[in-house]
Amino acid sequence: MNEERRLKGALWHTVCQIVNDETNALEIPQISPEYTAALTELVIQQLITIGSDIEAFAVDLRKKKTITMEDIFLLTRRNKDLQNELGKLSTLKTL
């Protein structure tokens, strides 16, 4: 099995677990496998886009070879709540 297929399988498993946990917590009917597969594909496409954007911010804008938290914050600039959470995490990691 190639690496991409293995990662997609692991992501699908994680998405299934989150969907199951959330449907149980919210007491809503079971979600179809097709929904979970579509959601997993959406997550994969979003991750690909995020990876490309972060790489572009690092390489094109700053001529760097290393992605930094500054690049991540640039990516999340429209989501202040996410920026706040990432800021908390980055502070914890540097202490």
TrEMBL record:
The keyword DNA damage applies. One of its GO terms (cellular component) is FANCM-MHF complex. InterPro entries: CENP-S/Mhf1 (IPR029003), Histone-fold (IPR009072). It holds the Pfam family CENP-S. CDD domains: HFD_CENP-S (cd22919). Coiled coil: none annotated. It comes from the Eukaryota. Keywords: DNA damage, DNA repair, DNA-binding. The keyword RNA-binding does not apply. One of its GO terms (molecular function) is protein heterodimerization activity. GO terms for biological process: DNA repair; replication fork processing; resolution of meiotic recombination intermediates. Belongs to the TAF9 family. CENP-S/MHF1 subfamily. This is Uncharacterized protein. It comes from Magnusiomyces paraingens. The lineage of its organism: Eukaryota, Fungi, Dikarya, Ascomycota, Saccharomycotina.
